[in-house]
Amino acid sequence: MAEASDFFRNRTVLITGGCGFIGSNLARRLVEDGARVTVVDNLAPRSGGRIENLAGVMDRLAFRRFDLKESSQFTDVFQRQEFVFCLAGATSHADSMRFPGDDLDRNCRAPLAVLESLRRVNPTARIVATSTRQVYGRPQSLPVDESHPLRPVDVNGIHMQAAENYYRLYHELHDLKSVCLRLTNTYGPRMHLGRCCHGFVSVFFRQALLGQPIELFGGGEQRRDFNYVDDVVEALLAAARLEPNEHRVFNLGHDEPQSVRAFAEIVCETVGGSATSVDFPTERRAIDVGEYWGSYERFHQAAGWRPQVALRDGIERTATYYLSEAKELGVAPAPPFTGTLRVSAFSSSPAR
Ligand SMILES: NC(=O)c1ccc[n+]([C@@H]2O[C@H](COP(=O)([O-])OP(=O)(O)OC[C@H]3O[C@@H](n4cnc5c(N)ncnc54)[C@H](O)[C@@H]3O)[C@@H](O)[C@H]2O)c1
Question: What is the model's pTM?
């Protein structure tokens, strides 16, 4: 199999959600690999979408800003794209309970509109879509593989499961070839630190960078697996190179499940700061899946992928990025982020 860096040279690639955390890392990588990249994003409120995530590569890609729900009005964007990476969506589980209609729009109506546009103007495009481990709900056994029952415990998980089914159906009925990757906790440069409703991973980095104690709901003893974003980008590229005869769904994951507390401790050792246990908020506990880690064996068999970045290494790389970008973060316009980063407070004192 050709290396991804050669494989995508001069290929036309559309990335939805390309201003977000994972989409922007993918866009940057594909631009470096010589692909002809188009990004569609509407910089949705309460999302990780930031135009700054594409700083330095903006003049080497095409950017279109519109809501993917309205894709039927912008079908020119979907023409002549060999690969379509569908990464736009709403990721916050807590927000999905507070704004279920928004989650429906972003995670169901928008991908459905994209599929309809592709069916009409570009049915030979190869699609890679991101889904989430949240579709499984609370694990009945660990590690969770793809045969585990799907019983999501929040609105976001239900909508993501529905979206997976759209991709499957369009593959089966209209031969729109697609692969879905079920991502687990992903972290790294360009994740949005500005909002408390994003996952605990970004919240922990935010608290540490602000010099606040990291708050561990209920002590943080539950174990999870974590993927560094570069590994997820490699997985997306590997998935695009598959030529599936049938719709395929794969877990990502990591061999190094760690407790949430252990994750926080490494963040503290790297950035500075301390962690403290707080009561698990009732509304968060209600949608918490407890212990989770996944088996990525099926994807390894199909695509040869395995995560390369160890947890501590990934956290150190992430901390390095945010410490050097702290000034930029300080102006991140996302309530309730109101603090000022105290760079000097942690750059000189690694562990408090
Ligand atoms: N980050 C994680 O830990 C994680 C875990 C599991 C699954 N995922 C999945 O990976 C994908 C990307 O996640 P992320 O962390 O990069 O999220 P993100 O919030 O950083 O990026 C999502 C992007 O989609 C854009 N967007 C949302 N709705 C849109 C619409 N209707 N039209 C146009 N643009 C729209 C937003 O503006 C944003 O730029 C999502 O599908 C998410 O569910 C992420």
Answer: 0.93
